Amino acid sequence: MEPLAFGRYTLLPGRGELQAAGGSPVALGPRATAVLMALIAARGSVVSQNSLLAHAWPGQDIHASNLRVQIAALRKALGEDRELIGTVAGRGYVFTGRLSAVPAAVPDSRMIRPCTGQLPFPMAELIGREAQLQDALARLERCRLLTLAGPGGIGKTQLALAMAHRTAALAAGSVAWAELADLRDGCGEQDVAKAVACALGLGAAAGVGAGLHVPATLASYIGEQPMLLVLDNCEHVADAVAGLVEVLQQRCPQLRLLATSRQPLLAAGETVWRVPPLAVPNPDVVDGAHLLQYSAVQLFVARVRAADSGFCPAPRVAAQIAAICRRLEGLPLAIELAAACVPALGVEQTAAGLDDMLRLLRRGRRNAPVRHQSMRAALDWSYALLAEPMRCALRHLATLPDGFSLEGAVAALAPQGLSSFEAIDALAGLVAHSLAQVDHSGTPPRYRLSTTTRAYALELRGGGEN
Asked: Which of 92, 110, 128 is the last residue of a domain?
């Protein structure tokens, strides 16, 4: 992707930077870069608000106020030349500059590490995951596509973010991050490719909104440069992501891909790694100091201390915390939501409230994604992605005890009209979607639902879904 020059400015799309002659580069960010590229591509024609929204936020339903923020950022970067971006009342915006030859001193953006500076910063310390981080990085070195899979709230995104920053620190090529959670369910390969192109700061340059085949353009841009591309929250667009990553793998020999998803992508060359829960102590561990060495307990204490810096659990309280973490089976989101209750309820009452855990675990961070603001919301997101036979299976398998067999599942689902094949297929789907767990240590394999998933499924049955 070549630089673009107009007036005294040079735009470096790959880096998302605007540089004035004799000045320092100004970071625009991927959205503002996409907006500016779309305006430039129009060559003096008015570009509507809706068209600019589609360029900068492909496949997403975004309020127009977000576009105004990006326009304001561009005008600020242009300073005294802010009038290069004009407003046409009731119609949209227009770029009034004229493109010129690029100065020879400007480096080719394809030789630049374009996206490392645009990685999201972790919101909190990653607790108890160093061993898993090293394991996942080692697996990524041995494959070209690694999918971190697991239930909602297991910590896939935070682990992927740590992997991305660790890789960026090694200076081994570009590192790019594409967030896919806001894409519509079931959107196509072209829409996913547009989102990735905008995350790379390409926007209109990759054919977004221009009718071009964006996956091919994206592959041409990446080419042979070494890059780690992270695709976060893929589960609702898994089919489209699978198609895109296969195109990129075929045409970009030095590209590595890291995906997070509640289900595998089922793409060629994919290695799936199930993210494990945090470590919880066995019931026979009672020493307070020993309990605090377990990562689940450490996370709980850290989150309580973030709200109450004086929190220092006595041995009896540490044992109650350990019991909470065991009951929540080391699931990080559930542990954080439980810890959020402690400043108001105390540890003992929080533990007692887990008898109605979906009602209790609903005080997430105010600005967290909706699907992470409560355990019910996290499970709603997964449930919405299930076909009806899998939904039926989830509701009825929740009545079975832990460690049920395949035959037991078939028998439980037969009264619901599912044949043996349909029941087996539905159970396999629940395993793939990280809503059921399978234990292969014995013969035959045994299945179970997690505590939170079981509570959710039983609530659905109680609400009249059969």
From this structure: 110
Closest CA to 220 of 203, 206, 204: 206
Q: Check: CB of residue 73 under 8 Å from CB of residue 28.
A: yes
For tokens 């879904």, name the residue. 465
Rg value, the chain, Cα:
25
Instruction: Report the candidate in 125, 128, 224, 229 with the shortest Cα–Cα distance to residue 176.
Output: 229
Structure tokens at 389: 């036979």
Instruction: Say whether the peptide bond before residue 444 is cis (omega within 30 degrees of 0).
Output: yes
- 152 contacts 379 by C-beta, under 8 angstroms: yes
* Structure tokens belonging to residue 153: 């709230």
Phi and psi torsions of 417, nearest 5°: 90, 10
The reply to whether 35 falls in a domain is yes
C-alpha–C-alpha distance, residues 156 and 371, integer Å: 14
Same domain, 133 and 99: no
* In a shared domain, residues 361 and 419: no
- Outline where DSSP puts E strands in 110-269: 145-149, 174-179, 227-232, 255-261
Q: Show the domain range for 132.
A: 113-274
Rounded-to-integer distance, Cα 387 and Cα 410, Å: 17
Please report where in the chains the tokens 């870069």 appear, as a residue. 33
| Backbone φ/ψ region at 11: left (φ over 0), alpha (ψ -120 to 50), beta | beta
Element (H, E) at 348: helix 342-353
282 falls within a domain = no
Contact in structure between 368 and 375 (CB atoms under 8 Å): no
Q: Which pTM does this prediction carry?
A: 0.75
Residues 6 or more apart whose CB falls under 8 angstroms from that of 455 comprise: 357, 358
Q: Let me know whether 58 and 174 are in one domain.
A: no
User: Is the separation of the CB atoms in 333 and 152 below 8 Å?
Assistant: yes
Answer whether residue 401 shows pLDDT above 50.
yes
Q: What is the pLDDT of residues 109-153, one digit of tens each?
A: 333 334 444 688 887 889 999 999 999 999 999 999 999 999 999
Position 280 in a domain: no
